[in-house]
Task: inverse folding
């Protein structure tokens, strides 16, 4: 039959057979070579046996003197030599995988030491930089452009300019990948921007002492990081000298005190590796409590309530609105309930700011934010 005259089922069967033929040839070729290789191995093994016993028998038949024992070879001498060589060969073959592991370990160790010895361009251990006596938390971007080091040809920020003032809640909105989180990472100085200016209270972030900068910033991410220790020790990372009363107060404000009270060991409860003993919402509430306890001048919230149910989100949103007073708050969110109370909403689109204003102003404008 021609291809055009075949039925749908026949066409599928024909395509299947064509695809199968390619693999059939490859599999058949592999089976032939595999069989030949296995045959060669066994031929060599039994050939070694035959050669060993033939030569041993010849030594006994000819009455050849065993130089070590000082007498002619006997059957026991032949077996001793034969099995000694065989066991030695097997032992060497068993050791070969260990040599492979040594080579892999050497290679892995070289990569590890390369990372350990590498001098980071942005090091928290570097004690240089300005340490102002006080901080207001005024964050200002001026024509900031940035591309990630691994993709230098793809510009993520294309000239960002914005200001976040003290006692002001600024919300970043826009589609995923438009540059919102990147702006937050530049404030924390996880990366250095390519051009433009980013200042905090008029000081370039590159000129500020990195440890001082991060001590004055609180961050709550979409995937909160909790360490494999107790709840209390996780919170004390924000403030080492905090009292139990301060810890409980922060937990109450983050709406986390109720579930912590239900745990057998309360504050001393172990959260598990990667906080596997807690739900996503519980982890996020503990991360918010840690940020509250730190009481930073600049608060960065990246989808900080995304894992919470509606009830908890509303209650914690009130807390976040309350603690935003007296500090600079920058929040990233996709939910309308999270951003509509912001003093200023900044709309991102493909690495650029396309709109700025309050919720009412942007809705009345009927532009990108409205859509």
Result:
């Amino acid at each position: 039959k021609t291809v055009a005259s075949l039925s749908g089922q026949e066409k599928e069967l024909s395509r299947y057979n064509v695809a199968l033929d390619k693999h059939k040839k490859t599999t058949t070729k592999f089976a032939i070579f595999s069989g030949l290789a296995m045959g060669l191995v066994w031929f060599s093994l039994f050939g070694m046996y035959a050669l060993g016993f033939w030569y041993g028998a010849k030594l006994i038949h000819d009455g050849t003197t065993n130089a070590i024992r000082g007498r002619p070879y006997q059957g026991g001498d032949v077996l001793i030599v034969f099995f000694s060589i065989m066991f030695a060969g097997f032992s060497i073959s068993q050791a070969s995988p260990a040599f492979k592991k040594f080579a892999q370990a050497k290679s892995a160790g070289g990569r590890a030491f390369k990372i350990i010895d590498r001098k980071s361009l942005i090091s928290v251990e570097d004690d240089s930089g300005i340490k102002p006596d006080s901080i207001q938390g005024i964050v200002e971007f001026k024509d900031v452009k940035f591309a990630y080091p691994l993709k230098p040809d793809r510009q993520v920020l294309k000239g960002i300019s914005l200001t976040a003032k003290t006692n002001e809640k600024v919300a970043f909105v826009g589609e995923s990948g438009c540059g919102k989180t990147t702006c937050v990472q530049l404030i924390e100085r996880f990366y250095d921007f390519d051009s433009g200016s980013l200042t905090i209270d008029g000081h370039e972030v590159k000129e500020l002492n990195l440890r001082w900068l991060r001590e004055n910033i609180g961050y709550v991410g979409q995937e909160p990081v909790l360490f494999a220790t107790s709840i209390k020790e996780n919170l004390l990372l924000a403030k080492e000298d905090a009292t139990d009363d301060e810890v409980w107060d922060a937990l109450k404000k983050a709406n986390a005190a109720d579930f912590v009270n239900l745990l057998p060991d309360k504050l001393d409860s172990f959260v598990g590796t990667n906080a596997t003993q807690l739900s996503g919402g519980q982890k996020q509430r503990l991360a918010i409590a840690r940020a509250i306890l730190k009481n930073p001048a600049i608060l960065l919230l990246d989808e900080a309530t995304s894992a919470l149910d509606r009830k908890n989100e509303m209650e914690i949103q009130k807390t976040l609105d309350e603690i935003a007073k007296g500090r600079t708050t920058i929040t990233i969110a996709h939910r309308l309930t999270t951003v509509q109370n912001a003093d200023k909403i900044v709309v991102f689109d493909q690495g650029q700011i396309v709109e700025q204003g309050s919720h009412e102003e942007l809705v009345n404008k009927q532009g990108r934010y409205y859509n």
Notes: The CA atoms of residues 37 and 64 lie 37 Å apart. The mean pLDDT is 83. The longest helix spans residues 8-62. The first strand starts at residue 65 and ends at 66.
